[in-house]
Amino acid sequence: MAKRENDSFSVKDLMQFFIKENNLSKGMQKIKIEETWNKMMGPGVATHTTSVKLQNKTLVVNLNSSVLREELSYGKDKIVKMMNEEIGDDLISKVVLM
């Protein structure tokens, strides 16, 4: 019978290892970006958002309301700052509203 080792790992460490080993970081990043957008902008903006993508440090957000698009365009720098703070990394450098 094999001897057991008493190494203990946190769930967070195990999840990070699993994500890294299976090359899931891009997909997890995509989910995190979408969840953060919905959380930071609230349900009013989330209902008018059709897609949220991160392409080369640029957050591309498709909106189905031209009025909302215009309103959000005035606060692009604030959106970048808030999203990066919530994510905990400088993933976003620019916001494009479409």
From TrEMBL:
Q: Which InterPro entries match?
A: DciA-like
Q: What is this protein called?
A: RNA-binding protein
Species this protein is from: Polaribacter butkevichii
